[in-house]
Design brief:
Layout (H helix, E strand, L loop, with lengths): L8 H5 L30 H15 L14 H6 L1
Keywords: Signal
Length: 79
């Protein structure tokens, strides 16, 4: 079973920030870490939009059905 899981959404926006400046977006304290139980840092709707745009741009058309943005670990394994 092949599927693509995208966890690097921050990398997409990284070019907009100063190189030696760390923003709250790059190093959130209330999400995306073990202490928050890996709570997503962005809304599902936004994640779906960004991930879909990334897939449209970089994934061949015949493989786009495998592009799924899933934040729940059990659901990600089932896909």
């Amino acid at each position: 079973m092949n599927y693509i899981i995208f966890f690097g959404i921050a990398a997409i926006f990284g070019g907009c920030l100063a190189q030696n400046e760390i923003s709250e977006f790059e190093s959130p304290t209330d999400c995306g870490n073990k202490e928050s139980e890996w709570k997503p840092c962005i809304e599902r709707k936004i994640g779906d939009q960004v991930f879909s745009a990334c897939c449209e741009r970089f994934v061949p058309a015949e493989c786009r059905g495998l592009c799924i943005y899933e934040t729940h670990p059990i659901e990600a394994r089932v896909v």
